[in-house]
Specification:
Elements (H helix, E strand, L loop, with lengths): L13 H33 L5 H23 L10
Helix pairs in contact: 1-2
């Protein structure tokens, strides 16, 4: 069942931004898992020597780690001021 939001979704709402960022991170993790498992599966299936697979996985894991640290530790979800 998808998450339900009790009020109209608005990126200016700090709670909604926090939930949206975490769902976005979860989607990135799922895409990483699906893509990398496919890459490694075909690498092992064909017995190919693909040295780039290690680099792709390493760089992608690093980017996910940075994204996760930002979302869970550094992001400031204070109320955004809409004054001009």
């Amino acid at each position: 069942m998808p998450p339900r939001w009790p009020r109209k979704p608005d990126r200016n709402d700090p709670e909604f931004r926090k939930l949206d960022d975490r769902m976005n991170f979860a989607i990135h993790v799922a895409i990483f898992a699906a893509s990398n498992s496919g890459i490694w599966f075909f690498r092992n299936l064909t017995a190919a020597t693909w040295p780039w697979t290690i680099w792709v996985t390493g760089v992608w894991v690093s980017l996910l780690l940075i994204h996760g640290i930002y979302i869970f530790a550094l992001a400031d979800y204070a109320t955004i001021s809409t004054d001009n």
